[in-house]
C-alpha cells in the first residue's frame, strides 16, 4: 500500500515507521521543515523513542519512508491517510481547540482522491469524526464519504518511549461510518500491525471493530478518563489518610491484593498530553459528568495544596530558596506537557519564594528557556519539592541540599530512612 501519515510528532513518526517496516510505501507530512529534513536524512528529530533511530537508519535509505511539507505530494493516490495532528483544550473554558486538526483536514481534503481510507487517530470528543470532519472532507474534496472514500476513527493507545512495543501489545480499536469502512479499516490495520498473543484478553489480540466512530472515540476517552478519576480518588484517599495518621500506600497495597481493586497512586500532579486533557474532551460532550469534573479539579489542585502545606510548616516563604526537582511530567521522559512543574513553581512564586528548578534531562539553557532558574545538586536550599520521579532522585538525601528545612516528596520516591532528621511531607503518608 501507499500510506500517508499527517503530523510526524512523537506518535505520528513511529506510526509511519511501523507502517514502512511492515512492507509499505510511506510518506509523512509535517509543517516543521527541520523535522522533515532530519527524517529524510535518517535522523530521529526527537530523543527517547526506543528503536526509532535504528528503524529510520534502515527504512529511509531503502526508500520505504520519506517526509515532506507538501500535502500535494503525499495525499493524492494514497490507499490510506492516517492523521495524528494535535487537538488541545483551552485552559480557561475547557473547550476543545481543533485549530491544528482542522487545518490538517482541510489540506488533506484539497488533495483527496477516490479510494482512500482516512483514519483519525488523535483523541477526539465523541461525535467529532462524524459531525465535524466527515462534512469538512466532503465539502472541500467534492467527494462522498462511503462511496468515494471511507472514514474511520482508530485511537492511538501508546505511550511515548515505548510506541513499538505498545502497538504490538494492545488491541487496535476501529469504528467507521459504514460497514464497508469498517471492513477497509480492518484490512488496513491488519496489514500494518503485528500483535502479541494476549491470553488475558476476552478475545484474540488484534483489530477490534467497535462498529461506529462514536464507540471508538468514547473507548479512547473512557480508558484515559478512568485513569484521571482513579488518580483523583487516590489523591482524595491520600489527603484523608495523611490528616488522620494513616499510610495510604499500605492501604492501597492491601486493597489491590484482591482482583476487584485497582487503586492508583496519589501524587503532586498529573501531566502529559493525555490524562490532564482527555477528561476535558469528554466533558465537552458530557457536561453532566460530575465525577470526571471533580477528579480533574482535585488533581489540578494538588500542587497548590502541597505548597500550602509546606507554607503551614515553614511559615512565610518570602525570600526562601525553594527547589523543584523535575521539570518533566513523568520520570525518564523529556517532555513538559502539562507538567506539574508549572503550577508548583507558580504557587511558590505567589508566596514570595525564590524558585529554582533541576532536571537531569534538561540543560541549564533549556530550563531557562522554560522560564526557570536552573538549580545544581549540592547547592543550598531551604525547601525542596520533588515533582518528577526520575530515577536519579531516589538516592538523594539531606547532604545533597545544604541547609534544607523541609522536603515535600510529591511522588513517594525518596527513602524515609535517608531523610531522618529533616521534616518530610509525602502525599498520602502520615
What is the radius of gyration computed over CA atoms, rounded to a whole number of angstroms? 24 Å
Total strand count, please? Answer: 15
Low-confidence stretches: none
Largest sheet: 8 strands, mixed
Q: Note the gap between the termini.
A: 59 Å
Helical content stands at: 25-40%
Overall morphology: globular
What would the average pLDDT be, to the nearest integer? 97
The SSE order reads EHEHHEHEEEHEHEHEHEHHHHEHEHEEE
Structural class: alpha/beta
Helical stretch tally: 14
How much of the sequence lies in strands comes to 5-15%
Spatial sequence of strands, sheet with the most strands:
3-2-1-4-7-8-9-10
Description of the molecule:
The protein has 430 residues and is an alpha/beta fold. Helix content is 38%, strand content 14%. It has 14 helices and 15 strands. The strands form three sheets. An eight-stranded mixed β-sheet has the order 3-2-1-4-7-8-9-10, sandwiched between helices. Strands 12-11-13-14-15 form a five-stranded parallel β-sheet, with helices on one face. Strands 5-6 form a two-stranded antiparallel ribbon. The termini are far apart. The model has no long low-confidence stretch (mean pLDDT 97).
Amino acid at each position: 500500500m501507499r500510506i500517508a501519515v499527517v503530523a510526524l510528532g512523537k506518535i505520528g513518526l513511529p506510526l509511519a515507521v511501523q507502517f514502512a517496516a511492515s512492507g509499505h510505501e510511506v510518506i509523512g507530512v509535517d509543517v516543521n521543515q527541520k523535522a522533515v529534513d532530519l527524517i529524510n536524512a535518517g535522523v530521529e528529530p526527537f530523543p527517547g523513542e526506543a528503536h526509532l533511530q535504528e528503524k529510520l537508519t534502515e527504512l529511509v535509505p531503502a526508500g520505504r519512508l520519506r517526509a515532506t511539507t507538501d500535502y500535494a505530494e503525499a495525499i493524492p493516490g494514497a490507499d490510506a491517510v492516517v492523521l495524528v495532528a494535535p487537538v488541545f483544550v483551552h485552559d480557561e473554558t475547557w473547550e476543545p481547540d481543533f485549530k491544528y486538526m482542522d487545518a490538517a483536514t482541510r489540506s488533506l481534503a484539497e488533495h483527496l482522491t477516490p479510494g482512500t481510507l482516512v483514519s483519525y487517530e488523535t483523541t477526539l470528543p465523541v461525535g467529532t469524526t462524524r459531525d465535524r470532519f466527515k462534512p469538512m472532507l466532503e465539502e472541500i474534496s467534492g467527494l462522498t464519504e462511503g462511496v468515494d472514500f471511507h472514514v474511520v476513527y482508530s485511537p492511538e493507545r501508546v505511550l511515548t518511549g515505548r510506541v513499538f512495543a505498545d502497538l504490538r501489545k494492545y488491541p487496535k480499536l476501529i469504528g467507521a461510518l459504514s460497514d464497508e469502512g469498517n471492513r477497509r479499516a480492518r484490512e488496513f490495520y491488519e496489514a500494518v500491525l503485528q500483535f502479541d498473543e494476549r491470553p488475558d484478553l476476552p478475545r484474540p489480540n488484534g483489530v477490534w471493530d467497535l462498529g461506529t466512530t462514536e464507540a471508538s472515540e468514547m473507548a479512547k476517552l473512557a480508558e484515559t478518563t478512568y485513569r484521571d478519576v482513579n488518580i483523583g480518588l487516590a489523591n482524595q484517599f491520600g489527603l484523608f489518610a495523611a490528616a488522620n495518621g494513616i499510610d495510604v500506600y499500605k492501604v492501597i497495597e492491601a486493597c489491590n491484593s484482591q482482583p476487584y481493586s485497582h487503586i492508583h497512586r496519589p501524587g503532586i500532579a498529573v501531566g502529559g498530553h493525555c490524562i490532564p486533557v482527555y477528561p476535558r474532551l469528554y466533558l465537552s460532550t458530557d457536561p453532566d459528568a460530575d465525577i470526571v469534573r471533580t477528579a480533574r479539579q482535585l488533581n489540578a489542585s494538588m500542587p497548590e495544596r502541597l505548597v500550602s502545606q509546606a507554607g503551614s510548616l515553614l511559615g512565610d516563604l518570602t525570600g526562601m530558596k525553594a527547589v523543584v526537582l523535575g521539570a518533566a511530567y513523568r520520570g525518564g521522559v523529556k517532555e513538559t506537557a502539562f507538567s506539574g512543574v508549572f503550577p508548583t513553581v507558580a504557587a511558590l512564586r505567589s508566596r514570595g519564594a525564590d524558585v529554582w528548578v533541576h532536571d537531569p534531562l534538561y540543560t541549564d539553557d533549556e530550563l531557562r528557556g522554560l522560564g526557570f532558574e536552573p538549580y545544581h545538586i549540592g547547592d543550598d536550599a531551604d525547601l525542596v519539592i520533588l515533582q518528577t520521579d526520575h530515577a536519579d532522585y531516589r538516592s538523594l538525601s539531606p547532604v545533597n541540599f545544604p541547609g534544607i528545612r523541609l522536603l515535600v516528596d510529591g511522588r513517594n520516591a525518596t527513602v524515609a530512612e535517608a531523610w531522618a532528621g529533616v521534616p518530610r511531607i509525602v502525599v498520602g503518608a502520615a
